[in-house]
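Contributing new records

If you add data, match the layout below exactly. Sequence lines come first and carry their own label; structure lines follow with theirs. Keep one chain per record. Anything else will be rejected by the validation script.
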Amino acid sequence: MERREERLAIKIQELIEYRRLPELLDIVENDDSIKTQFINELSDLQKAIYHLDHILESEWEIIDSSLEGKWDAIYNALRVLGIEDDKLYDYCKHIYKYQKHELEQRKGKSLLRLSMEYFYFYKSCDVKLLRRIIFDRYSVLRSTFPPSDWRWFDLVTEVNDDIEDLYEDIDTNNGNRFLLSIEQLGKEQAYLIYKEFLRCIKQAFDRKIKNKSIHPTIIELTFNELKKTSQLLEQRYREISTKAPLSGSLKVF
């Protein structure tokens, strides 16, 4: 248990840094102690969300009481961050939506029935929540880095997570859509679907920056992640055998 919590702490730190949340705080907060405390509180919230996620990944038969305790922890972490009780559901509604997608797998509803953009929009619910709380506290950031301008960055980083975690997620109930695509559609089709989705993200982002002024930092981050994720997709394509891993274990060259 202790080692799992240590790994979780590392995972949370990596997530917060990967999504560039400390860099946002560096722009508006000069007091390191305040910044550290805020990051710690955000990390506690993310930890509570991951504990909910762990239940969904590790247990196929889910009872409401096992989820209630995890939700209590999420709500308490939000209260520490200053979110009032009458706003808790609104702040968590995207997490509830993604939880619904996870639970529907138990009813035979494949995640592949959802559009790629819809699925990955809700899969980034935790990151959007953390960023929303940062913007609530430092509202000046909202005008410079509007939440909507992060849409493509969030999509591509979630895709990257699924491709990166392919082997790690084999033995869980994790809603790794890339893994599910390989298992249900085969390597070739999964590869083509993800390659096309990354192309569509880039195309949509290209159109966006032509019609709207977006902060150069977001532009650079988004294009860097698109390149990185495309390269990772090619790497995974080369690694996996041409036979789809229907048994739940990937065969690697």
